[in-house]
Specification:
By secondary structure, the protein is of the alpha+beta class. The protein folds into two domains: 98 residues, PDZ domain (Pdz3 Domain, Roll); 162 residues, Pdz3 Domain, CATH 2.30.42.10. 20% of the residues lie in helices and 36% in strands. The strands form two sheets. Strands 6, 7, 8, 9, 10, 11, 12, 13, 14, 15, 16, 17 and 18 form a 13-stranded antiparallel β-sheet that branches. Strands 1, 2, 3, 4 and 5 form a five-stranded antiparallel β-sheet that branches. A hairpin with a 4-residue loop joins β13 and β14. The N and C termini lie far apart (85 Å). 19% of the residues are buried.
């Protein structure tokens, strides 16, 4: 008897919702459904795949433009720290949720590190759209690798996260740089990775700073310039001693607008162009 009553209420609720949505947009007569959430986003733990979005802030939602308007109103409003007040339909029930929004600049990848011949960066939106991040945190993502490099020889390929280096967690790119800066030339490095399907793996590789120095490439949106900075390499002028470029920084500046390249060698704060 209880199941019959719940089914009757559910049908009545659905009819009322359909009438409100049809009145909002009588031509298209559609409803938006959640396909997935970006991994690590604030909506990930609240919205589920298959949820139908009925209303935001008590206003019926029938198209992407309605959601965009609601987000813009949230940006200009003051004192609304609870996010979007969403009404969804899940498994025959109407549910009210407060979903906070995330800021996305749309710039894409603006920073990467080349370490042992692998291109390391923060997980980009296309990866996060898969809906998975390692349990240890965001990690740093291996986007590409070079033939003949240490990562090629020892099997550290692309499409996986590096979550630990020599037992030290690498939750973000800045932490990863700090960890690998302390590694010496010829040192065997233990790396723990997690693949896209969540499978963990531990491998060891030998660092080669002679042919594969550690360097960083960063984009500056204000000046539209890419800057290449050497982090650690062997100094051939000193018989192969390790040169950790912190005070003496070697930079290659690429002007995105004109396409020109400038090499700058900084020594003790002075530029030798």
């Amino acid at each position: 008897m209880l199941n019959s009553y719940e089914a009757k209420c559910s049908r009545l609720l659905i009819n009322l919702l359909l009438q409100a949505l049809a009145k909002r947009d009588p031509i298209r007569r559609q409803v938006l459904r959640v396909k997935g959430c970006l991994a690590g986003s604030k909506a990930e733990g609240l919205l589920e795949q298959g949820d139908m979005i009925l209303a935001i802030n008590k206003e019926p939602i029938t198209c992407f433009h309605d959601i965009e308007n609601a987000c813009q109103e949230l940006d200009i409003s003051e004192g609304n720290d609870d996010g979007l007040q969403m009404t969804i339909f899940r498994q025959g029930k109407e549910i009210d949720l407060a979903v906070e929004t995330d800021i996305r600049d749309g710039m894409g990848t603006i920073r990467m590190v080349n370490w042992c011949g692998s291109v390391i960066q923060d997980p980009h939106p296309a990866v996060r759209a898969l809906g998975f991040l390692p349990e240890e945190g965001h990690g740093v993502y291996v986007a590409r690798w070079c033939h003949g490099s240490p990562v090629h020889r020892y099997g550290l390929y692309a499409l996986q996260w590096i979550v630990e280096v020599n037992g030290k967690l690498t939750p973000d790119l800045e932490t990863f740089i700090q960890v690998v800066t302390g590694l010496e030339h010829g040192e065997f490095v233990r790396v723990r990775t997690v693949s896209l399907n969540g499978k963990p793996r531990v491998l060891t590789l030998k660092q080669d700073l002679h042919y594969w120095p550690t360097w960083e490439l960063r984009f500056e949106p204000e000046s539209a310039v890419w800057r290449r900075r050497t982090i650690k390499e062997l100094d051939p002028s000193k018989g192969g001693d390790v040169l950790q470029c912190m005070e003496g920084v070697s930079e290659v500046i690429i002007d995105y607008n004109s396409g020109t390249r400038h090499h700058i060698q900084k020594t003790n704060g002075r530029d030798n162009s």
